[in-house]
Write a structure and sequence with these properties.
Layout (H helix, E strand, L loop, with lengths): L6 H4 L17 H29 L9 E8 L4 H13 L8 E8 L2 H9 L12 E3 L3 H8 L17 E8 L3 H8 L4 H7 L12 E4 L7 H16 L4 H14 L4 H8 L6 E7 H10 L5 E4 L7 E2 L4 E2 L4 H14 L2 H9 L32 H14 L2 E9 L15 H13 L7 E7 L10 E9 L3 E2 L2 E2 H10 L11 H14 L5 E9 L13 H11 L6 E7 L5 H13 L3 E3 L7 H10 L13
Parallel strand pairs: 1-2, 1-3, 5-6, 10-11, 10-15, 15-16, 16-17
Antiparallel strand pairs: 3-9, 4-6, 4-7, 4-8, 11-12, 13-14
Helix pairs in contact: 3-13, 4-5, 7-8, 8-9, 9-20, 15-16, 17-18, 18-19
Length: 602
């Protein structure tokens, strides 16, 4: 044969295990082949080592670039988000050129909203990369503001928690006996200031302040939606808001604390389902029971909002947002008493803990305009009131009343007493009586109770009771005429001099509709109208509201309407005592438009 064949050359490398012992001569080209193989092997080993080292890098290792992601979450969901973040950090690997570490802190949603918008009471500058408020209502509010207009749309939802009614387990049966199955309509009825003798006598409603709590605002939106669907008039909603504004509490903790106090009325609160779970988890399972409204409800939806400004932080925030909607995160939020965004709850929402795991019916979220309108209505109804009531005791008040027993004076007194029930203790009120020459010649009015808080005591007796007693003792002056114009001019001057900017300032006139009737002269009808028109100040409005019972005189009606219109007020002409509460509620509702209300009469 012609010689031996080199199989190692065919393989492209040198194999010493096939080479016989002893020294060999080799050409230059054949030396390069094994060197090239060695270099290739070294390169491969180096790449493998780099991959292994990179894979094993941690966020605490020196030389690894770090991206610190700051998350602010609503206090109720912050523990769950913090647990999710801890697991995320523990499993973290470098992302791009850096390593992400997530830090979570609690931030009240209302305070964060104010901080971003630069309005209201703030808790400092907001500089987080990711924000999880308890409701999209805050996001909508911000996006409608000047400074918050650029806020991104939420990239998802971390959890869900329906807004429910809540009560101690011990009173649930009493509540069911009062208004049947839990419902927004029943709650609205119990909270209506216009029906103080209704079921509200036995039930104490404890809402959350909607200006600082999304569950409170959601409840008002749900209740208003139910009332609107039933065709109920605006005055009933105003009555409900007025009453709720007096009993609202700032936090769920305060609400639960109030529930535990002894009272002759059964307490019922408004809170998120998770709020019930959290309270029971700290106390005793089933202490508080969640009651699910039959009409459905609105849920807190915990939107995930990326607020980072730098690109690296934005990308990291988006990745963490994705993790917040994953299966592991879903289990964590369910374990903390929440539902996942699809409405499904976990074992924490058991009936033994006062909760119902079934997904409740949903009420459609009202549009932004409705949310804004109700929010503004609440704020204006929360304003204090300063009221001076002028009561006609002229001779015609001794005439028989229409639609009620007794004379007009008695009906006027009953009217005022009924109206007084609708005002909270912080309202400032006082009374004058008027006819002719009541306080000396030519002075047609006399102060009976000075203006002040009706909850304040005068000689040991609350001003409310002093006014009620005074009204009960009113008698018509048989020979007296009606010095309305002089009285109204003096009252207007007093209210102007004592104007309080943080209150709704009103003059309330009770009369029988005859109008001014002063044979001794005094201010004429045209003069009082000119005075009111000239002196009415839209920046410091003082409105005149007239309640005229049994007003049959056409000229008197025209004059009273004109007086009301001159001050952006209103004249009412109820036919009997049954219409009085509605009149007062319509008067209270004028806070929502003052000083731009139309001065029309009935």
């Amino acid at each position: 044969m012609g010689g031996r064949h080199r199989t190692d050359d065919l393989d492209g490398g040198y194999n010493p295990y096939h080479e016989p012992a002893g020294r060999r001569r080799a050409s230059r080209g054949k030396v390069l082949v094994p060197l090239a193989g060695a270099v290739a092997l070294a390169v491969l080993l180096g790449v493998a080592a780099y991959v292994i080292v990179s894979r094993d890098r941690t966020c605490g290792q020196a030389g690894v670039a770090k991206v610190a992601l700051n998350v602010v979450a609503s206090p109720d969901i912050e523990p769950a988000i913090a647990k999710i973040a801890a697991a995320y950090n523990g499993a973290a690997t470098p992302q791009g050129d850096g390593c992400v570490t997530v830090a979570v802190k609690s931030g009240d949603s209302a305070s964060v909203t104010n901080a971003i918008a630069g309005s209201g009471a703030t808790s400092g500058k907001f500089d987080a990369d990711l924000w999880i408020p308890d409701s999209s209502l805050w996001v909508s509010k911000l996006r409608a503001s000047h400074k918050g207009a650029g806020l991104p749309e939420p990239s998802g939802s971390a959890a869900r928690s329906p807004v429910v009614l809540a009560a101690p387990k011990s009173v649930v049966e009493k509540l069911r006996g009062a208004f049947g199955e839990p419902s927004w309509s029943g709650l609205m009825s119990a909270a209506n200031a216009a029906t103080p003798d209704g079921i509200g006598r036995n039930i104490r409603v404890l809402p959350l302040d909607p200006t600082v709590n999304a569950a409170g605002l959601s409840a008002i939106l749900a209740g208003a939606s139910v009332l609107k669907g039933s065709g109920t008039g605006e005055e009933q909603l105003v009555g409900v808001l007025r009453q709720l504004s007096e009993s609202a509490v700032s936090t769920p903790a305060n609400m639960f604390a109030t529930m535990t106090k002894q009272s002759s009325r059964a307490p019922i609160g408004i809170v998120s389902e998770q709020g019930v779970w959290a309270y029971n988890d700290k106390t005793k399972p089933g202490t508080i029971v969640a009651l699910y409204p039959a009409e459905g409800t609105i849920s807190l939806d915990y939107p995930i909002v990326v607020t980072a400004k730098e690109q690296a932080a934005r990308e990291a925030a988006k990745k963490f947002a994705t993790a917040l909607t994953g299966a592991d995160a879903g289990k964590t939020v369910r374990d903390h008493g929440f539902r996942t965004p699809d409405g499904k709850g976990g074992a924490a929402l058991g009936r033994e803990n006062g909760l119902d795991p079934a997904t409740p019916r949903a009420i459609k979220m009202p549009d932004a305009a409705q949310v804004t309108r109700l929010s503004q209505a609440w704020s204006r109804l929360k304003l204090g009131g300063r009221l001076l009531a002028l009561l006609d005791i002229s001779g015609t008040m001794a005439l028989p009343a229409v639609g009620a027993p007794g004379d007009r004076m008695r009906l006027i007194a009953q009217t005022a007493i009924e109206g007084l029930k609708l005002f909270p203790d912080k309202t400032e009120a006082g009374t004058w009586i008027f006819s002719t020459n009541l306080n000396g010649q030519g002075v047609d009015y006399r102060e009976t109770v000075p203006v002040g808080p009706i909850g304040q005591k005068l000689n040991g007796v609350p001003r409310r009771e002093v006014i009620t007693r005074s009204l009960s003792r009113l008698r018509a002056k048989a020979t007296g005429d009606t010095g309305l114009n002089d009285t109204l001019a003096a009252a207007y001057d007093k209210m102007k001099a004592e104007y309080e900017a943080d209150k709704i300032n009103t003059i309330l006139v009770f009369t029988d509709g005859v109008g001014n009737d002063d044979p001794e002269g005094g201010i004429t009808n045209s003069e009082i109208l000119k005075k009111l028109r000239d002196e009415f100040d839209r920046t410091q409005p003082i409105s005149v509201i007239i309640v005229a019972l049994g007003a049959d005189d056409a000229a008197g009606r025209r004059q009273m309407r004109a007086i009301a219109q001159a001050t952006q007020g209103q004249a009412f002409f109820p036919r009997n005592a049954l219409e009085i509460r509605k009149v007062f509620l319509e008067g209270i509702s004028r806070r929502l438009c003052a000083p731009n209300c139309g001065g029309s009469g009935q």
